[in-house]
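As the next step, I selected for study one protein, both as residues and as discrete backbone shape codes, as given directly below:
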Amino acid sequence: MAYLAGVMAHPGFIVRFKENLVVPGLHVPLTADAKLFTEAVAIGAEVIWLHTYGERFVDPAAGRKKQAPRLPKENAPQIPGDGAIPGAPEPLPDSMEYDAAKHRLRIGKGYITNVTPEMWAYEISGKQVLGHWFSYRRRDRSRPIIGERRPPSPLEKIQPNHWLPEYTGDLIDLLHVIGRLIALEATQADLLSRICDNPLLSVEELRNAGALATPDVMTESKGKHKSTA
């Protein structure tokens, strides 16, 4: 799993295999070089540690403690004294905006500094992460009904009427994670290039080594599963 994250979970993978990704289904370049494999696993462990906010692939020796990841202090997002996002009695904010010149992320009447343009623009599966995160915490959380989708439940109206302190903590944590993921992207792109430029393992080689089940074994396994269901 760490190998997959190290090799595939970054924009460089999309750029390199853009034409191949038109057809659904991901194809993994599996290196035949043990050193490259080990390197990919180490990078992927870092990626998964970040994605899980320090819950998985914990390794203090590698700097991965069981806690929310943090950027170096000089790169860390901060809330100045006059930037606190107000809570009650102020209502929930309706807007999140980014000032690229000041590297400032504004949420309602508050703001966070040291937020880079890359953090603001960071996307996963075509969705801007910060904007998507805020859409579930702003005052107006309604979404357009597309096609025959069921109308929203009245339960969706049950929500805080003011900004909660944990929202601010969650946002800071998210910015730290995004910042560290961005810092890994160049390393991941270089790794992918070296993997693709060196010998790869084929499906046939993996199957001959017993690493993949053959179609006959898979069919037999399904049959056994059905007979015991």
Notes: The longest strand covers residues 96-99. The two ends are 29 Å apart (CA to CA). The chain has one domain: 2-143+165-198.
